Amino acid sequence: MSPDEFRHWGREVVDWIADYMERVEAYPVAPSVEPGEIRAQLPAQPPEEGEPFDAILRDVNAILLPGVMHWQSPNFFGYFPCNNSGPSILGEMISAGLGVQGMLWATSPACTELETHVLDWLVELLDLPRHFKSDSLGGGVIQDSASSATLCAIVTARERATAGQSNQTGVVASLTAYATAQTHSSVEKGIRIAGLGSDNLRLVETDDQYRMRSDRLRQAIAADLAAGRKPCFVCATVGTTSTTAIDPLAEIGPICRQYDLWLHVDAALAGTAALCPEFRFIHEGLEWADSYCFNPHKWMFTNFDCDCFFVRDRAALTRALSVLPDYLRNKATESGKVIDYRDWQIPLGRRFRALKLWFVIRWFGAAGLKAMVREHVALAQHLARWVDSDPRFERMAPVPLNLVCFRHRGGDAATQQILDRVNGSGKAFLSHTRLRDRLALRMCIGQTHTQRRHVEAAWRLIAEAADDLHSDKPSGS
Amino acid sequence: MSPDEFRHWGREVVDWIADYMERVEAYPVAPSVEPGEIRAQLPAQPPEEGEPFDAILRDVNAILLPGVMHWQSPNFFGYFPCNNSGPSILGEMISAGLGVQGMLWATSPACTELETHVLDWLVELLDLPRHFKSDSLGGGVIQDSASSATLCAIVTARERATAGQSNQTGVVASLTAYATAQTHSSVEKGIRIAGLGSDNLRLVETDDQYRMRSDRLRQAIAADLAAGRKPCFVCATVGTTSTTAIDPLAEIGPICRQYDLWLHVDAALAGTAALCPEFRFIHEGLEWADSYCFNPHKWMFTNFDCDCFFVRDRAALTRALSVLPDYLRNKATESGKVIDYRDWQIPLGRRFRALKLWFVIRWFGAAGLKAMVREHVALAQHLARWVDSDPRFERMAPVPLNLVCFRHRGGDAATQQILDRVNGSGKAFLSHTRLRDRLALRMCIGQTHTQRRHVEAAWRLIAEAADDLHSDKPSGS
């Protein structure tokens, strides 16, 4: 494709994206397709000859679009958001156009230095501990996801606990780690991948608000020590996936320090709230953390993938992950003056992801980002009040930020019926979780373009679905 | 940013990319900046108020562009290529614009189904073993990199070898794995991350062409068995990083089968060559592999990240990597009729990466892709002949495909001087490796836009640098 052809089709695609932005609110949020329905429309064999670009774009519209969930719809309230925004897409475009591979500082100094710089900015913007800045012994790096960040933290913790002798003597078999049943599944996955074994992950009891009980954590560590095990890692969560519960870092931290456990803090969704001083309570005690991550690709309007991972001791991280073959040796690395981010992550290669994050921060400014976060939190607080004031519903968890969990008092079947009705309407999309063995609706207010009218309309849908629960009539949506 | 603002700035960015495509050949391939030079030009504090987009774009040009390596220059011959192409960038744009998150089939059926479909196409296009197709017990998935694919293979091999009891009894400490000193560093990294320990990775001797010696592999396995160890994993390479050596799969495979070892085949760069029937010799014996990966983001003109990872037994992979929390349960998953790719990879979330690969295959067609690969291989064969016919140079390895390794007969210092001179000129970029403890230049012909004139010009530069080696005159480039 020549530059001029790219210029032509690039404009078409930009218009396609702008049109999509304008129309997305009107699309049914969740697709209604059966397994295999999309594939059945695609030719079984790849084309031998090239095809014109407009044929490809036509198939995007005709075949793919009916089969996507519209995560960028302001009526999307499911899971946690996975937002984009105009400046973020433009940053991703330039990243794809430049096509640099930043595995080493030397393979694109600007790629590494902008990333370090923007992650230092985020320490300022979220008021994170200073030891996460690059002018300390720590620093930050962009990962694809909190799962990968957590895995890096676990592997580093394992190496620290075994003094780099992991698996020479079966010592890994003695290691134990700690989280809660509310902790994200990526922690169990990481524990498995790192060879610690799911059974060595202790699920510490939570309190009535789904927060880790620090007294139970202390007891679990003591019991493991008494049994000859070697506790090495704790994952605390700021904003759990089910309910955005906030584990008490200020209590957990001193315990980790006392027993020399690595404390990783996962704030994938909630971290962004710390843009606003009034929400910085979520990070109380974060100064105890050895590592921390949050995902701008969730609530900071930066498209997937973009997780920001900070460590207090970058040497510990790179000791765990660095392997330096001859073909990657270079003078800059040997000078010790540069960061080679390949040693901070699982993959070797990396694209220029800092661009989109830099674009987002500069376009919106701190003030613009704060205003959006504040609006989302305010809308969630409204929603919580509407739930509380409707006798048919029961709120299932506190709402510290922008997620409301609630159920119909009629039980799981009624709650499921409401979920199916709302999602089936295409007018909004919620997801669910189980809390104290009861089905709960999860409604997260955090999509880039969600405004009050979208939340109000979704709540009306939910209320109407509840109205119709015991009706024999066909549902009158 | 409103849709109309996006429309406006999107066109500017498309023009920026098209202009970059037109100009990239003229830029010095490698930047000449000092550590910290880019950061020093960026404001220490993030902006409180939003900034106009043209200010951001101006800084991309003024601050960042001088600090990037131009991987998309046709004069880029270093490392392995990390290519983009027009259709690939357009695919990445639509992926960013749609912003879907395909962790589950249910969270965007089209994202999953297109990926499965395109990976099945690749089985056809490369003539891979049929058990890698999704209608068998196996299948394919897009990973960010071969490093991550290899880690998934290692973890699956570990779980298979320990019957899922990894680390309950310290059994992981008994596991051993096999590769060669020429195997990519990601294998040692994966072995470490998975908790097997670097010391349990055996580096099997290679032959005089840097290929794994299968007799030595057999001996190493036998020795470990005799010592009570449990061999579990072999990584064979099709196209090693240093020299594109091709391990003898047809000899290695039966040994792995005999001893029940997982055979992973890493063809990150070279796999693409199998588009052309005349290069399919590289995959001879691939039918023995349990898993296989290659990177369209290297030589198939699809921008980073895009590694295609195939497994023979997808159930083994998902058993190793699946953790299913309540909030991700859904009817489609429970029906057993769909693929949830979150269980095929380290991260949970994933973007719509199949789009760019689909765009590339459709735009170029199989015929177009084959023609580009053939041209690159032919150019590399020309280069090898030029090297062979110049008495000052010594070729250091066979050239089965598109990488030529050679040195100046004057030794490491002379070779280094040539490398520095060529790279310092900005007119071409090579990288290096060490072979039999001697410095070798690596020149890989595989950038999307590299033509004969670029290879000729680079060879002239190299020859001139050799001319000037013993000259006292200032170099007359």
Plain-language structure description:
The structure is a homodimer of 477-residue chains. Chain A is α/β, with parallel strands linked by helices. The first copy, chain A, folds into 3 domains: 3-73, dopa decarboxylase, N-terminal domain, CATH 1.20.1340; 100-352, Aspartate Aminotransferase, domain 2 (3-Layer(aba) Sandwich); 369-467, Alpha-Beta Complex (Aspartate Aminotransferase, domain 1). The first copy, chain A, is 41% helix and 12% strand. In chain A, the strands form 2 sheets. Chain A has a 7-stranded mixed beta sheet with strand order 1-7-6-5-4-2-3, sandwiched between helices. In chain A, helix 4 packs parallel to helix 12. The first copy, chain A, is globular.
Task: Spell out the blueprint of helices and strands.
The structure is a homodimer of 477-residue chains.
Chain A: H1 3-23, H2 53-64, H3 86-98, H4 109-125, E1 139-143, H5 146-161, E2 175-180, H6 185-193, E3 201-204, H7 214-226, E4 230-237, H8 249-259, E5 262-266, E6 291-294, H9 296-299, E7 307-311, H10 314-321, H11 331-335, H12 354-388, E8 393-395, E9 403-408, H13 412-425, E10 431-435, E11 438-444, H14 452-467
Helix pairs in contact in A: 3-12, 4-12, 5-6, 5-10, 7-8, 12-14, 13-14
